[in-house]
Write a structure and sequence with these properties.
Distance between the termini: 20 Å
Structural class: mainly alpha
Number of helices: 17
């Protein structure tokens, strides 16, 4: 209901037109070189360790060491990986599929392998979700494709969850109260119980625990952007890692590589109070309006990644650390030449 940027998505709006082959080629050459560097300098590769039968504790430590525990200049690996895998590469893959590029399947496979190499269980969804959206918009969804993606997504998530814990897979146990489930110390039983608990309960009680920590440890004083490493550096504020304070509250110990992230409107409240919730929500709504109006299939297909990310992260982090600030500006002011001819004619993209 707020057409603030609608004019940017109408025919005739002035845009910077860039060569699609150059854009995609440069991005993928950079990513492949970066991927080789990250894998070569990693202390270990969690996926290979899992195949060798490493325990859940060992795999957990290796996941942290792979990116989060890097030191020196290698700290930037985490931020580059986040930007590439959260927005730029998914966008590029959709462009490759939109123009039926010869190497589209190979690029998708490389991206998928990198995502699962360090056992970040949900990262590969950054490939699955945009592809499903694109196939749906282009009228290319078939039962076979839908079943394949659902089985692939469920299988990888389940296997990733299983290797993350020690113990049986199918063990279940009763609970006396639903309150037991929505707590960090819940004894979930087997691997399948952990899978359900992690997906359904953790985001809910983490949002509540963030508010508890905010009022107990920070006396309810608005943090004014100090939770963001970028904003705290720009405005010379002390960096406050609320996510680690919440993790400590939940599990009783401080962990330098573990975070407990909450939904975006909780992060907005912690930083800027109710006005933050209102302004951030209006801004998020405007971004989804951009996704709806855009004729660029790559940009349009990113909406589930943006929405999924907001479920477990703050808007500030999504914009800066996940690369969505650039993608929003790209969607408003840039056109990739290789997909211009197909934007109007493709079924569902008019």
């Amino acid at each position: 209901l707020t057409p603030l940027t609608d004019s940017r998505f109408l025919f005739g709006a002035s845009r910077l037109v860039i060569n699609g082959r150059l854009f995609n080629g440069a991005l993928w050459v950079y990513f492949i070189l970066f991927m080789v560097l990250v894998l070569y300098t990693a202390p270990s590769i969690p996926l290979l360790s899992a195949f060798k039968g490493a325990s859940a504790d060992v795999l957990s430590q290796e996941r942290g060491d792979f990116l989060k525990a890097r030191e020196g200049l290698e700290i930037v690996f985490l931020y580059i990986t986040s930007i590439l895998t959260s927005s730029l590469l998914p966008y590029s893959i959709i462009l490759l599929y939109a123009k039926k590029a010869r190497y589209r399947h190979l690029c998708a496979a490389i991206f998928f392998i990198f995502c699962i190499s360090f056992l970040q269980k949900a990262l590969f969804l950054n490939l699955i979700f945009p592809l499903l959206v694109y196939f749906g918009m282009a009228g290319l969804v078939t039962k076979g494709r839908l079943v394949f993606f659902l089985v692939l997504a469920s299988g990888v998530l389940f296997v990733g969850t299983i290797v993350s814990i020690d113990g049986p897979i199918w063990e279940f146990q009763g609970v006396e109260s639903i309150d037991e489930v929505f707590a960090a110390d819940f004894s979930y039983g087997g691997g399948f119980g952990y899978f359900l608990w992690r997906a359904l309960a953790v985001p809910v009680f983490t949002a509540a625990d963030t508010l508890v920590v905010f009022f107990d440890r920070f006396r309810g004083d608005e943090l004014l952007g100090a939770t963001s490493s970028l904003l705290s550096a720009i405005f010379q504020m002390e960096r406050i890692n609320v996510e680690r304070h919440v993790f400590e509250h939940q599990f009783g110990s401080w962990n330098e590589i573990a975070n407990a992230n909450a939904v975006f409107f909780v992060d907005a409240f912690v930083n800027f109070g109710w006005w933050g919730v209102v302004v951030f929500s209006l801004f998020v709504g405007q971004i989804f309006r951009m996704f709806t109006l855009s004729r660029d299939p790559g940009f349009k297909a990113l909406w589930p990644l943006f929405g999924f990310g907001l479920f477990s992260a703050g808007l500030i982090g999504m914009l800066f650390s996940n690369g969505f600030l650039y993608m929003i500006l790209h969607g408003m002011f840039v056109t990739v030449r290789s997909v211009v001819s197909g934007l109007v004619s493709a079924n569902g993209l008019r």
